Amino acid sequence: MAAGVAAWLPFARAAAIGWMPVANLPMPVAPTNKNKHQDEIIILNVSGRRFQTWRNTLDRYPDTLLGSSEKEFFFNEETREYFFDRDPDLFRSILNFYRTGKLHYPRYECISAYDEELAFFGIIPEIISDCCYEEYKDRKRENIERLMDDLEDNKDSKLPNMTFRETMWRAFENPHTSTMALVFYYVTGFFIAISVLTNVVETVPCSYMPNQRDIPCGERYTEAFFCMDTACVMIFTVEYLMRLFAAPSRYRFMRSVMSIIDVVAILPYYIGLVMTNNEDVSGAFVTLRVFRVFRIFKFSRHSQGLRILGYTLKSCASELGFLLFSLTMAIIIFATVMFYAEKGSSSSKFTSIPASFWYTIVTMTTLGYGDMVPKTIAGKIFGSICSLSGVLVIALPVPVIVSNFSRIYHQNQRADKRRAQKVQKAKLARMRISKNGSSSAFLHSKRNGLNQSLELTGSLEEDQHLKKTTSLLESQHHHLLHCLEKTTNHEFVDERLYEQGYLQTALQNFPSQSPSLSSEEGITGTCCSRRTKKNIPPLSATNTHSHTHNLQELSALHIQCGEQHPLNTSRSSLNLMSDESGSLNCKSSGLVTTAIISIPTPPSNNSRANPDAPPPANPDAPPLPNPGTDVVRISAL
Amino acid sequence: MSAPVKRTQWDEDPTLFRKDHGLSKKVLLNCCLVRWIISWASPNKKDSVEDELELSAVRHRPEALELLEAQTRFSRKELQILYRGFKNECPSGVVNEDTFKEIYAQFFPQGDASTYAHFLFNAFDTDHNGSVSFEDFVMGLSILLRGTVQEKLNWAFNLYDINKDGYITKEEMLDIIKSIYDMMGKCTYPILKEETPRQHVEIFFQKMDKNRDGVVTIDEFIDCCQNDENIMRSMQLFENVI
């Protein structure tokens, strides 16, 4: 419950008078305010600066230092004030939290100092209000990253007892860990460079003799180039197989981008080996050789910057998509316009709209080759508009991509995403916690037997020892919820019990008929015996088992209107305590309810917990008119 | 054409545009065009400013403390405490229905308290002006906490009688009871069935409606409640709330 509305609790309780005339059950006793002294102003002296506030304000959050009795440790007898040797500036926001119910994070403060203050005063940072929460989380993340960067330099200490496979994998991933790894790293790098160079040089024309036409070197020194290619592919194959062997999860390794690049780099060679020198397929074979250029991507293992570029492009997918989309739109528009503008002129190169695409692209990117130029006046006007807009369209998304790149260069991209997911989850968790906090507090106190079905003439002794654990505010709120339960004749339960109860009632629809039938015969003996029989298993059975039995007993119990049965179990003693000759309907149901609710505790506790709940005297309980399955539900509370 | 002037305020008075240009038709047309573009681009500027002024003007100051002390049964100190809490949650001095619903819903996290809060709001808003001021609030509380049993029952009757015609019909009662059950939420034991509110209404009418005419009048209501010990006892329940 937000403490800001604590002041409205008296109003909510007063408004509960509206339920009284419709309630059929008597209401529980209201918790009394034992220490009814007038609300006083307490003085908090924080390093010399005196803050003053009402005591009630601080009591709103009883699980913090200032709201609990922990502050008595800081009480100064001579000056009759509470002295804290902490930072007074930070204390301001902490005290404001009590006043307004919202915790704010001042932007000019250091994040770790703030965290320390919160920890000192027992306030969890998750309740920082939304206006300051993003800022707080950002600063905290930066701080943690800075600490982690310092730590990472001291990491990479060799763990003992690593298998050969693990050593290999670590060597592959972090080449600077051992000299062998470094050597391997440089060797593979060298061979990648050689391979790329070979591919390039292959196509350079080197003349054999001055008067012969130029043939590319590849065709002149076929064997040499073939040997070079083979050597490189050998090295790459060996490297790939070794990585595959060392990978902790082979399947995941095979799906990773780097391994796909490796495979694509070496596959053309093998395909070329397999294929014969058939004329038909040699064309396709030549195409395959293009893929050899992918070997250059293997450099990305060697260069951090290349990897980051890849990540940037991946992360800016939306901006790139927007750039592409807007460019396409502009190209189509301008190509159409240019085509129709130039249609009139003779010998125009703008033969069709797709033909105009080339002109538009060249103009918008300000290349301006000049192979296609407009000749009409309208064409020239639109051409100039085209080039101006090209500059704009391209200039807009590019800075975003650039800033992204620089950001990622300084941070780890993957860790960011993981942490972002955690923030989102934490935020949802916060909202859920605050929502469930008050309801679970009520259910929790019910389960511990603190909320007893005392009625208005109930005893006051139990009252006293329940005050120690809950604050007055909480107990008043719980009393309000208890009144609502009594008004509607239903109980609050948590999700788990609700689902259990839901299943049970679905199951009980048929079996509930039989006990009622047999009880209508009026043989109390049978009912007694059945009940006694059923009471023995719960003590030894599991919780859900006893739950089932309790429910069956419920459906059996309700029909005995106005009859008392001497039972020889714990529940029987409760019935006897009632001393009523009146109907047992709501009374007995009141008993069994508390038993049901305390199911999570072991069954032996039932007998102890139940005596605390004397059945509510209900002489005026209206007799339920129509028997049937509905009645089972209403009275079986 | 005049030299372009840097315009910092786009919502100037449009009559300024008409003033004293005296230049060519083209200028006038351009100005109209510009004006039209401005008004199209920011259509609600004027309305929103006025709206904001209206909202800030709704600041209610309550009657003097002595007057309230005379009108209600609270002591000066109690009124001070009440007002501090009230003003803390509603700095403007009045509660409108949405704020009221929000505040009331905080006390019942498991269910939906909005319907009942709506009925409560209507019961507190005695002059039916759509907002509950501190006087309304304190008058209501005075009846509920310090009033005689007769007054409390009167208040409860007023709450149940949704259309304030002096009779509680079964439909009105069904609405009220349903809203109370709504506050329980979904996770109850036993499971809330469809017919439970209706049965509750039946029980209520059997108890209250003496002449079986299908409605409960104020006299039947008060009579019956005074004969019911439980209800009498529960009316005294919240006397020590403040």
Short description:
The complex is a heterodimer of chains A (about 625) and B (about 240). With about 625 residues, chain A is mainly alpha-helical. Chain A has 28 helices and five strands.
Written account of the structure:
The complex is a heterodimer of chains A (637) and B (242). Chain A is mainly alpha-helical and 637 residues long. Among the domains of chain A are: 41-157, 2-Layer Sandwich (Potassium Channel Kv1.1, Chain A), CATH 3.30.710.10; 164-302, Four Helix Bundle (Hemerythrin (Met), subunit A), CATH 1.20.120.350; 310-428, Orthogonal Bundle (Helix Hairpins), CATH 1.10.287.70. Chain A has helices at residues 9-15, 55-59, 88-100, 111-120, 130-153, 164-173, 179-202, 217-220, 222-246, 250-255, 257-274, 279-290, 304-315, 317-342, 353-364, 377-395, 397-410, 413-447, 461-467, 472-488, 495-508, 513-520, 524-540, 543-557, 570-578, 585-597, 603-609, 629-635; strands at residues 41-46, 49-54, 75-76, 81-84, 491-492. In chain A, strands 2-1-4-3 form a four-stranded mixed beta sheet. In chain A, a hairpin with a 4-residue loop joins strand 3 and strand 4. In chain A, helix 6 (164-173) crosses helix 9 (222-246), helix 14 (317-342) crosses helix 15 (353-364) and helix 23 (524-540) packs antiparallel against helix 24 (543-557). Chain A is elongated. The relative contact order of chain A is 0.07. The model of chain A is unreliable at 450-469 and 511-637 (pLDDT under 50). Chain B has helices at 15-18, 25-41, 45-57, 65-71, 76-89, 97-105, 114-124, 134-146, 149-160, 170-184, 196-208, 218-227, 229-235, and strands at 94-96, 131-133, 167-169, 188-189, 215-217. The longest helix of chain B has 17 residues, at 25-41. In chain B, helix 7 packs across helix 9 and helix 10 (170-184) crosses helix 11 (196-208). Mean pLDDT of chain B is 79; it is low at 17-21. A two-stranded antiparallel ribbon of chain B has the order 1-2. Chain B has a two-stranded antiparallel ribbon with strand order 3-5. Helix content of chain B is 60%, strand content 6%. Among the domains of chain B are: 61-147, Orthogonal Bundle (Recoverin, domain 1); 165-241, Recoverin, domain 1. Chain B is extended and about 90 Å long. Chain B has 242 residues and is mostly helical. Chains A and B meet through helix 1, helix 18, helix 20, strand 5 and helix 21 of A and helix 5, helix 7, helix 8, helix 9 and helix 10 of B.
